[in-house]
Write a structure and sequence with these properties.
Strand order of the largest sheet of chain A: 4-3-5-6-7-8-9-10
Radius of gyration of chain A: 18 Å
Oligomer: homodimer
Structural class of chain A: alpha+beta
Largest interface: A-B, 33 and 33 residues
Distance between the termini of chain A: 53 Å
Strand content of chain A: 25-35%
Largest sheet of chain A: 8 strands, mixed
């Protein structure tokens, strides 16, 4: 494929199929490790990493390098490989490592492909729920073999019965934006801390009205962008904070719920 | 069995086996209904009820009346039957109906048996996770065929890495105790709104350090008491509010985490 041409839908679908095969292998690793024991330790940023994170990322990196030796790979644990390629696979081998460590079954593996910095394939695999969400540009968003089409709320009267996802307050402490977390908790009694890719996946299939998640990295955000947009939802990256320009502060989900969340962010009481 | 004797362990285990059979049947109903459509509507208290709640409760009531025609039954949706019996089965057919309505996979069925007002059997079944937690007095707490023994945190230094469950702020609004919710959110950055029996189950198997849940009914609380105590955890019912004397305000989980939560409740800053 010439790199100066846009990707064909068939090409993108083929990359999506590769991504699905890789996360399926990742799921086998996770299942095997969950059945036994694994060790967790803290990284310099105080977040946890486990043997499982490392094994899954190494597996996916190896497979991508074997299948697409010219593609770049960027993972949470092992950094960047071939960063000059227009194709970049981004990996969060275990998104929700604190949950994995505590055996809370709401963690997952995220894999996305960026072409010229635009996400074109996104996969979220939740091993303990037996669910895989996947999307490719132009080919729709799917949960397994079921097409996902987000239904917006008809009007604002539906908002109180929408559950809205939000990450741990800890995430907003790190981002220096506890004001956002605290204000939203007061304004919507059904805010729930469905953290990590579990919350993202529930927003993709409309179980959540929307989700707001701050201080993410590209490997946490890219898959969600493809999934939400292909499902017909709205994905908004807020202007990055000047001191943390690489971080993603996101609001995504049903358009009217996203709009309501955006209106709460200006701080007006 | 003579009603003036304490129950034997064998008798309690037999009741537990019956309970497991009934929630398994309930799981089949839920799976069938989830594969299709069901209707949800609001009850006078503004909470949701669905066809699934009603079908599951009717099924369990019918089965109990057939097997133990002298036992009482108290369910969330259909009220009390034979309330004079020393044996009372309490049912929450779908705990987490808002989640079920929104197809958030964190709802479940709760069934417990009280003998002279003391819970002796408790079962929580989470159909979308494929998990069933069960306990009988003197026979331990189990997740499926795996015995559960709660490991306490060794000391307070472990607290920051413990995830603590809490119900929606909505629940604390109803209970008139938003002060508790808001204070805990500020004091522990890993409070998560893992509502309903999903949070209870995670506290039982030690994935959560503890859970705090307010404004419950007996059918939400009784199974948890047996499960937590048989797993070696601590279960505390706070003194009921004078205006809502039948409601249960609970703190349960690993003893040191429960103790920490109790110390936060006095309102001292």
């Amino acid at each position: 494929m010439k790199e100066d041409l846009p990707l064909s839908r068939d090409a993108v679908s083929a990359y999506r199929d590769t991504a699905l095969r890789l996360v399926s292998e990742a799921g086998d690793v996770v299942a095997r490790r969950l059945a036994g024991s694994f060790s967790a330790r803290k990284k310099p940023d105080k977040s946890f990493v486990t043997d499982v994170d490392l094994e899954v990322e190494q597996l996916i990196r190896d497979r991508i390098s074997a299948v697409y030796p010219e593609h770049g790979v960027l993972g949470e644990e092992y950094g960047a490989l071939r960063p000059e390629s227009p194709f970049q696979w981004v990996i969060d081998p275990i998104d929700g490592t604190l949950s994995l460590r505590n055996r809370i079954p709401l963690f997952g593996t995220i894999l996305a492909l960026l072409y010229r910095n635009e996400p074109v394939v996104g996969v979220i695999m939740l091993p303990e729920l037996g669910r895989t969400y996947h999307a490719a540009r132009g080919a729709g968003a799917w949960r397994g073999s079921e097409r996902i089409v987000i239904q917006d709320v008809p009007d604002e009267s539906g908002l109180p019965d929408e559950v809205i996802g939000i990450s741990d307050r800890h995430q907003f402490i790190v981002a220096g934006r506890t004001d956002v977390f605290d204000r939203l908790m007061l304004r919507h009694p059904r805010m729930r801390t469905y953290t990590d890719c579990f919350g993202h996946a529930l927003a993709v299939d409309g179980s959540l009205g929307a989700m707001i998640d701050f201080d993410l990295n590209v490997w946490d955000a890219a898959a969600t962008q493809v999934l939400i947009e292909e499902a017909g939802g709205r994905y908004v990256r807020l202007p990055p904070d000047a001191e943390r320009p690489a971080k993603y502060n996101l609001v995504f989900g049903k358009p009217r719920v996203v709009q309501w969340l955006l209106e709460q962010l200006d701080g007006k009481e």
